[in-house]
Amino acid sequence: MSQMVSHQGELVRINVNKNCIEYSTNDGRSWHGRSSKSIIFEFQDLTDNGNELLASTSKGLYYSKNKGASWHKR
């Protein structure tokens, strides 16, 4: 896993300073917030799993089917 992945035509990354997910549609030249700061868990790693993103977190494995806007426990 890594802290930045290519997923469905976007770059998606963990912003470790804000503990949130950000995305870029212009190869990383600018970044936009996708999920608000998580107070439930700390993001650690991301992976592209086809039609979903997987995130390793301080509370276990989570998945997102909407490009990281919301997360659900796996």
UniProtKB/TrEMBL annotation:
Domain of life: Bacteria
Name of the protein in question: Exo-alpha-sialidase
